[in-house]
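We modelled the chain as a single entity of 81 amino acids. Its sequence is:
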Amino acid sequence: MKILVKEHGGHTIRLIFPSGLVLNSLSASFLPKYLEEQGIHITWEQARVFIKELNRFRKRHKDWKLVEVQDADGDFVEIRL
């Protein structure tokens, strides 16, 4: 997973996280509790299947953009799988 943040003033921050660190069974165990606080109800098994499919998608589609945002001031954020 790659996160890129470009500030209008010229500062750029690049963060690279191994996908195995972010998309694993442990993170799938935290997902239902967090989503429950947001009003979304899923089971641990559904979260695990979602993480597994997201990993399969990541392998087929390298550098797929999850989020790309640019504000009026020129700041830019991009998150890639």
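As a brief sanity check on the tokenised model: The two ends are 5 Å apart (CA to CA). The first strand starts at residue 2 and ends at 6.
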